[in-house]
Amino acid sequence: MDLSKAAWRKSTxxxxxMGECVEVATNIPGIVAVRDSKNPDGPVLTFTxxxxxxxLSKIKxxx
Length: 63
What we know:
The protein is α+β, with helices and mostly antiparallel strands. It has one helix spanning 49-61; strands at residues 8-10, 22-25, 32-36, 45-47. InterPro entries: DUF397 (IPR007278).
């Protein structure tokens, strides 16, 4: 999967943990990509739009 054009943005819930946060790219058609900002060249998780919505919904229900 080519993520070279991914527009990464930091989570709005990222705190001041010395820059440790999650970055998300939603501009790639059909997927949402997630990575660790401390390791931008490391592994990336990918989700379908439906999987991402379900993930966020589950997190919000436990917040």
